[in-house]
Amino acid sequence: MHRSVPDGRRASGLRRAAALAPAMGLLAALVSCTSQPDPLTTPCGVVVDGSGSGSEKGFDAEAKLKGSLMPFLEEQKCGTVEFAPITRSSKASPCQVAEVDLDPPGSETSNQDSARAKARGVAGKKALEELECARTQDGSDVWGALDRISEAMPGDGPDAKLLVVSDFAQTDKEFRLSRADLSTAQKRDETVDTLVKQRGMPGLKGMHVYPVGLGMQYDGRPSESEDFEAFWAEMLEGRAKARVHYDYR
């Protein structure tokens, strides 16, 4: 026998449902708003060393690149990444790969973390392509590569993060850093002056630069390594006004 619900109870139930509706809507909105991670907005760059020293015992460019690139891209929250090679004439080198978007657009229901991981994988392949091309050319124009990457990231300044996988052995037809006297602060300053006069100053002001492999060719020769690193500290921080970190060294 069917019994109808009293009007009072029915009204009470409707009121409870009506009261819950806004809360349920708010909860759904909150879930929708928090389900996607924050946007990745950091502009990043990667410089890879294709010189002969990058395949020697002291410094393995490919191993260093593979070991540092993914942590760098993820930990620095890179939204895009540009690439530049170190070759005999880095600015004029034909080696070039396209910028990678590390925060590809998606919908509210897409897995953004998965899409980002896939994009970082693409960046890893591009970096190795750049390295492979750079290894077909002789020389090691580190300063030209820094100039080239800074021009690829104009106006990014303090927001930019730059990974430089290189032993920083500046060697080209016009200048060989290994022949310079770097034993005193004055001698290092004079060498910096020479390079700046010849090459100009890359636009690294305010950028966060992460060297990987700096001075590794001096393995077993600590005094030479210290002078060499002091030279690049003066060049990058003292003159170019970059901010240097060694998180991935």
Brief write-up:
The protein is of the alpha/beta class. 44% of the residues lie in helices and 12% in strands.
Low-confidence stretches: 26-34
Order of helices and strands: HEHEEHHEHEHE
Instruction: Indicate the percent of residues in helices.
Output: 40-55%
Question: Class by helix and strand content?
Answer: alpha/beta
Number of helices: 6
Strand order of the largest sheet: 3-2-1-4-5-6
Mean pLDDT: 86
Strand content: 5-15%
**Total beta strand runs:** 6
Using the CA coordinates, give the radius of gyration: 27 Å
Largest sheet: 6 strands, mixed
- Estimate the global geometry from the Cα principal axes: globular
First-residue to last-residue Cα separation: 81 Å
Structure keywords:
6 helices, globular, single chain, alpha/beta, 249 residues, six-stranded mixed beta sheet
